[in-house]
Amino acid sequence: MSDxxxxxxxxxxxxxxxxxxxxxxxxxxxxxxxxxxxLLDRSGAVAGTLGCSxxxxxxxxxxxxxxDSGSPGMRTYRHDLGSIEVYLEPYPAxxxxxxxxxxxxxxxxxxxxxxxxxxxxxxxxxxxxxSFAVATDHDDPALADLLEQVLRKGPLFVGVMGSRRHTGHxxxxxxxxxxxxxxxxxxxxxxxxxxxxxxxxxIAVSILAGLLAVRNGAPGxxxx
Length: 224
Known about the structure:
Layout: H1 3-13, E1 18-28, E2 37-41, E3 44-48, H2 53-69, E4 73-79, E5 82-91, E6 96-100, H3 104-113, E7 119-121, E8 132-135, H4 143-151, E9 157-160, H5 164-176, H6 181-185, H7 199-216
Parallel strand pairs: 6-7, 6-8, 8-9
Antiparallel strand pairs: 1-2, 1-5, 2-3, 4-5
Helix pairs in contact: 3-7, 4-5
């Protein structure tokens, strides 16, 4: 494995976004060769080179657009001595899934999340814009405190296991504390798609299925 590929593996493990650019064809005698690679993020090169500073600068200029689109594509970069065709492949940052509650379902969620592209964490400080959070213990006396901390960071999704009968008082406490109504009302409870799930592993799968629906913009079918 090359240094560029090793760095890409490490960045993906860390949940960091990257663009891998690879020379696939040359025309003329440019200062490059097929197989040259550079790894980029929005601020510049992370590792590797396409052969010269002109090609590297061109790839850097295109990196943000590929990250925004999420789709790979080809670009042609030109030099006085020839041109290269480059395949740019974006690797978006893995969204954070904050799992609250040391419960059987919480442990299953934590174990399964990485297999479907989430980076599971248990520290509320890791939540932020675009993150997902699921509370798995509606009996936790500190749940309102945890939810308030998470909601104030602007997550994409927050869910709480349990029916409204079990979770309603937590939501009312958040309203009493002055959390915006739209943020409190958006909390999904119960959480999980209606799969007829039984037992912790199946319930965790139903929750992850719902999170995938949100992440992918699909309607899903939440339990009522």
